[in-house]
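Lab meeting minutes (informal)
Scribe: AK
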Amino acid sequence: MKKRLLALMLVLGMTFALAGCAGAEKEDTSGGETTDEAAEDGAKEAEGKPEQSVVKWNYGTSGNVLVTIANEKGYFKDEGISIEPVEANANADAMTLLATGKVDVVSNAGTSNPLAQIASGVDISVFGGHMIEGCMPVVALPDTEWKGIESFLGEKVAVNPSYFAFTGAVAELDGVDDPMTAVSWEVYSDYNDALAAVVRGDVKYALMGTGQNLSVQEMEKNGEIKIVSYQSEIMENYSCCRMVAQTKWINENPNTVKAVIRSLLRAQSYYEANKKEAVTLHAAAIDATEEYVGAYMLDDEHYFVSVDPLKNGVIRAWGILDSTGFLDENASNIKIEDHINTVLYEEALKEATELYGDEAPDFYKNMQTFFDENDK
């Protein structure tokens, strides 16, 4: 019964969040190439060419700012690929599209959803990332005391416990044996319903989505609620959204995967140096106002995007979800490390550094440092 209830919570949680390096030409010092030399050059060029020129991608209704920039600035085109957006109504639908091969890449379906799929036997893998921290505020009534995650103990909170940052943090508190019973986790299918529950006093705290930032900030200014914390303050680098694909697709299209990563690395470099323009570009891409997008994207303390796979964070999430009952019993037979591909990312980062490092040397140095700290 507990497993069925937890599975239902996870399904409800799913609705919440909703190329190739062409071979260098040989310098001709002899006046011409022999047949063997020409064949060798052709093989090198083919080796770096994307296996797939069009990548079918689901990035949800909120979009992916790195994809937006890579499209607008021609980074995908430079790598010999293009992106075909594939829409889905919810994160669960996106994962179904991925499992059935109707989409190649999903980047906005969180971390819990892909891990639940892996645990149930679907052979997909993490190969990169989107948001590492998604600027998700925790709100309460204005006079509510907040002392940290310990304020959740014994209270009703509108947080789906599939959000492992919270259950993981509660589990680490002294005296807590079971984070699932130490807090009354109230599950709402919509963030607006969770917010209304706070205003009515039905729950003491509620987690809001990235897209609720503008309305929440306005309500706080009006004295209706207050932001007491953010998910990223509960657990740093909690792994908001991973970039996933079928393991077979990754293995059969390594050059395409690396082309995607190199494009997104350039986009991330541009994003970090031009956030206000990124807001303008992304607002247009998702048909939203700049005020709406800027409410979360310009929050440098709580909004963090990165192409990095964040291997250690994914392993941590897997452990928490398993210990709190949100993964299939089959999870004990699965080594999650086998579903996190960091090899192609590491190769692509090296290649991008060689190709584009002069554009932003500090950025690529920082990305290497971040990889060394979070993926090894």
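Next up, CB showed the second protein from the same session:
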Amino acid sequence: MAPMRRLASILISLLWACPALVAATPNIVLLFADDLGYGDLGVYGNPTIRTPSLDRLASEGLRMTSFYSAPSCVPARVQLLLGRYPSRAAVSRTSVGGEGGIPGDLTTLAQGLRAAGYRTAMAGKWHLGYAREEFLPVGKGFDRWFGLPYSNDMIKPWVQTDEPLSLYRGAERVEHPVDQDQLTVRYTAEVVDVIREKSEQPFFAYLAYSMPHLPLRTAGRFRGTSRAGLLGDVIEAIDWSAGEIARALDETGQGDETIVIFTSDNGPWLNLPGRMLSGGVRPWHAGSPGPLRGAKHTTYEGGVRVPFIVRWPGRVTAGTVTAEMAATLDIYATLLAAAGGETPAGSDGFDLEALWAGRTAQSPRREFIYHRGSGVQGIRVGPWKLRTIDGDELFHLDFDHSERYNVADEHPEIVAELRERLNEFKARVASEQATDQ
């Protein structure tokens, strides 16, 4: 081997053996869709919705097929931005008319990254408190924010409220009424501006799309362009957004030093309440859980298992796929570790970097607790899942990811073991709550 080639080989080996030699403070872009189901992307098997940008992101990074969030908007954001299960974080009444928010003793992902030296920015839906400035994103670690305080349906005719739905910039309401057709485009422009800013600091950009949460809206340039109708138009606009962000990273020379993550808060809203079937909303505007059972507001897999893609050049091998278990809770822990920050005591997340990098084939997450709101409804350990709200339902998810076959009667010993672990978790939560009072 020629001397220069031998030196290059040695350097590459050192980089893989010592990940700390790779850029210690990567930029971070976190893309978080709203109500986008497991089966809504081309790379996850949708037959008619085209998602070339997200397909490319997956081909350049890692795709996970057993990634968990929560079955509705607020709990999903609690897990993502606080790294805690909803039962362990007293966040409530954050929608229209609510006075709640994130307690001051909990550290958000943005606060942790800002403490680690990051500039932080958010565009899009917050849904974790808005009645007081301290509960807004700019009170919870984000240097800047442009977006909506909660879901885009919190107006008449879908919700009977006289409180206007307004766009915020920072702590100020800056626009009402809101042209929802332009939300995805405008949110994308905000993140592209952050990427193009010249700074010595790394950045954390969190884009929480308002779509495809109902009612569906998208800019005119995307309408009528998808074989999947309006839902396809909306999701293909999100795919365009991901492409614009990737292009900005490449054009500014930051693509190789940026972690890009795409995922969703929960599955599609299939069992629509009557209030939603007005104002042009049709049942087929909801998305697809793919091969999974259930949907939003359920703890069947279709409500909580969501797409997850990460690209991290130099760490994640392009084109890899894993069925190992992980969750939004782990994004919190992993990103803080990647940034050189500290994960607060009490976090329910695990650092996934070794799994993403391929240094281990097994996820550090061996257990996941299913919540609906702040209530506990089940547990997964390895391939086994136990739901306890409608009697005992036991599924082997490696054999039966669609949860068609309840095998609780065949495996009473596994039911007993999982129930014991679930009860241990509930007891720990009850003890923490008693201590806090």
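CB comment: Residues 7-23 have pLDDT under 50 and may be disordered.
No objections, moving on.
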